[in-house]
Amino acid sequence: MIKFWIRLRQKFWFLPILFSFLALFAAYLTVELDRVLSIEQKKTWFFQALLTDIDLAKIILSSLAVAIFTMITITFSSIMVVLTTYTSQYSPRTLQNFISDRITQRVLGVFVAGFIYTLFILLFLNRAQPKTLLITPTFAVNIAIACLAFFVYFIHHVATWIQVNNLISQLTERTLKSMASHFNTVLGEERPPENMDTLFRRTDLQPVIARDSGYIQYIDVAGMIHIAAIDDVVIVMEKSVGDFVTKGTKIFSYRRCSKREINVLEYLDFIVLGNERTAVQDIEFGLHQLVEIALRAVSPGINDPHTAVNCINRIGTILTMLSRYSIARPYHYDDHRQLRLILRLQSFSYFLYKSFYQIRYYASGDLTVMEGIITVLQMIAEAGSPDIKKTVWDFSRYITEGINTSELMDWDKYYLNNRLRHLAVTTGFESEYRPVE
């Protein structure tokens, strides 16, 4: 069920189709209301100015249908402009952020629902008496006004969303939310059980291969632990969220603690594979999106280092929050304190390297970007534990080794060394500080 729901929510057509069924149901209800109520009741309950005859109703509904369809056309055109801009200027990986945006889907759903509502009202009006008064067109006018309000809001939303700073902020917030929900489910305990060696020596390791190819988008940790407790097995994940697996390769292994036979297909159902990476549980994917925008910004064709620094600052925000989690906790137990699942988790140094190694390579000659990285490293170190401080200091030496110092002037070296000195003091490695010559 979780796998089906995740795949369904990623579809762009899901909300428009859902709203369309609701519009069809609403059209039927309003027509039935017109049929059940007498003319005297309508005049008593509604303003008489809101009542129309069937000829005027058809004119109103026809005009509304054309107007709503025009708004749908303009909306689709705006979406195509945004998609083209995202692909050419930012990153193709940011397309799914706009496509999966709830506001975009809801606005399109409201337009489609309004169009379907007016069409079915026109169809149902054939059942109405020629000389009766109708209240249904008033409901259609209100829906059209709502569509107009959504249309104005959508134009504002597109104009805001397409700005690079807002895009970077949206990607950051989405990654932070993903990280918070992700670590609430995947982080177990840091230490393995005392009988770890005995447990894995007395049974054989059984590999389980993937049925399909794709990226691992989601792992239902709670579901796997529950089934593993019933089957009395220990699951060892060979892949992590964000990894690409091919059909026929090993995705996880298990060890039976009893002679009970297990159905491996039940476990594979708890692992969602897709054609592309998503930010549901994949923190690294959110970092990659920000890295790609930064790389586009420092490219010779764009040459926008301040946008790159903005991305670096946002990456630093994510890494700062990440440093506060004890992420080396892969061991999961059931309610009876029996080991059931061992996840494959990445270390903080892995995320740190993946965030900056490409930027360091392509922006080695841009002092603004390199200084921005060192500033972010200091921000991470200020909020980190002693282990994090040591990792940050070691990584800072990797960054400074990649700086092209041959083109630096005296003032450039002065400000760069000043940043490095502050970082050394913050991390507690002032004795190891060596200025850039």
UniProtKB/TrEMBL annotation:
Record-linked InterPro entries: DUF2254_membrane
Keywords: Membrane, Transmembrane, Transmembrane helix
Transmembrane segments: 12-31, 59-86, 107-126, 132-155
Domain of life: Bacteria
Protein name stated in the entry: Putative membrane protein
Originating species: Melghirimyces profundicolus
